[in-house]
Description:
By secondary structure, the chain is of the alpha/beta class.
Amino acid sequence: MRILIASLPIGTGHDIAARALAESFALKGAQVEFSHHLVPDMRVQTGLYFFGIRYLPQMYSTLFHVGDRAELLWRRHRQAWRSTGVRLLEGVYDALKPDVVVATHPYALTGWSGVKERHPELRLVGVLTDLSVHRFWYEPAADAYAVWLPEQVDDLAGFGYDADRVWPLGIPIRASFAEPNPLIRQLRQGPIVLLGGGLGVGPYVRILKKLTALPHPVLAICGHNENLRWRLDGYRWPERVHIVGYIEHMPSLLKAARLVVGKPGGVTAAEVCQSQVPWLLTHWIAGQEEENRDRLIMHDLAIRGDNNLQELAQELIDPGSPRRQRMLASQKAWARPDAADQFADRVLSL
């Protein structure tokens, strides 16, 4: 079977999930290709998105929620991206002849639906990398969706999609997160991990200053965001504070951490949940991550720490804390380490 995984490099979660899925498909004998063919038509929107979340977050949040409620905007958006898909992707389909297109970004899903209209034999599946479903993710022509939470099944059903075709499998993450680690059975003596996120949006200096007041080592991870790393490196920190860039061994690090601090990205949520480590949410991108935040809190998978960070951090580090125990139990219940493999099995059976 030929699988084409379509994503867009806006944030890091869409591509992380795409790579996890590619690994599972390849191990099961499928032929896998990647598609970023819509990137040229996303440059303006990507620039506006980054500008909005950085400098006009409240306005962006308002527009995000208006778009979620307005069916007319969705119809116009869908019509435009289906036309774009036919223009840019018809040749890709002719060259690669995929049996299934798996989309980890909503615009990729809508774009490929225009191709599917001309080629009904093509199967099209959407993979959600967040914890709610915005209306722009709704594509009636999709054969199936993969989501994490039962509320997302309800989200899609509310738009008119058949709930029986929504697979609550989890968010695909790297297979290494499923590997056992003996450190998880011991009292965690690793650092407090501050996750910078791929976009570097947030008050990291203020957060790190508060964490340095605690008597624990702190590891600030900036990922590929060199600007954030240089900014943090410009301050004088205590010796127990370490600032690093991209880290390959994230699964082992999270499983050994005392506490994770950061923002509620969808893939990050799945990775932290699988690692079973207490999680404090200190900031979030306007729009989608506000929804992620609320659903993580609702399921006891994380708590807000934007107002009383130091007190809550000390509480969650304490092994006897009821709140910590409740959170770890909930993370264990909601962990889906085999999401990518289960998804690949479902797709290969279409």
